[in-house]
Amino acid sequence: MNLNDIKASLKTETREIEFKPVGEPTGMFFELRHESAEEVQKFMRTYTAKIRDLTMKRKTTASSNLMKEHEDGLRVAHVVGWNWAEGADEDNGRPEFTKKELRVLLQDKVVGFHLRKFIDEEVGSLEDFLSKSEDN
Predict the structure, then answer these.
(1) CA–CA separation, 44 and 40 (whole Å)
(2) Is 83 or 125 the better-scoring residue by pLDDT?
(3) DSSP for residue 93
(4) Which of 2-6, 31-35, 63-67, 90-94 reaches the highest mean pLDDT?
(5) Domain ranges of the chain
(6) Contacts of 32 (CB under 8 A, 6+ apart)
(7) How far apart are CA 34 and CA 93, in angstroms?
(8) Strands 79-84, 15-18: pairing kind
(9) At what angle do helices 60-78 and 99-107 cross, to 10 degrees?
């Protein structure tokens, strides 16, 4: 194996998975990206810089608040989008994906907990995001 083979074996792709909070199909599919994706890494670099700045200024309350905001911001960075098996239909409770809509859903008192848990679990395995070669 050479360096190009190693790079190719570690290349990640997005993956689509159905949101099944209690094991039942919902028809809502999320397209997720791994933490090594550039969009997620960019979010982390920005967050780290902000925390470093607040820490140097000894602003512990602001740091704590930023950490709380960070959790959902990271989840938003992991989500490329969603789609519906029956197609999007605002009138029937199947909105088009927007980051704003995702943030609202993450804060929902009923769905939010389950959606946060789902995203956290589904982005946790590198193997699920690795490119599938014809040999695999």
Answers:
(1) 6
(2) 83
(3) T
(4) 31-35
(5) 27-124
(6) 14, 15, 16, 17, 78, 79, 80, 119, 122, 123
(7) 28
(8) unpaired
(9) 120
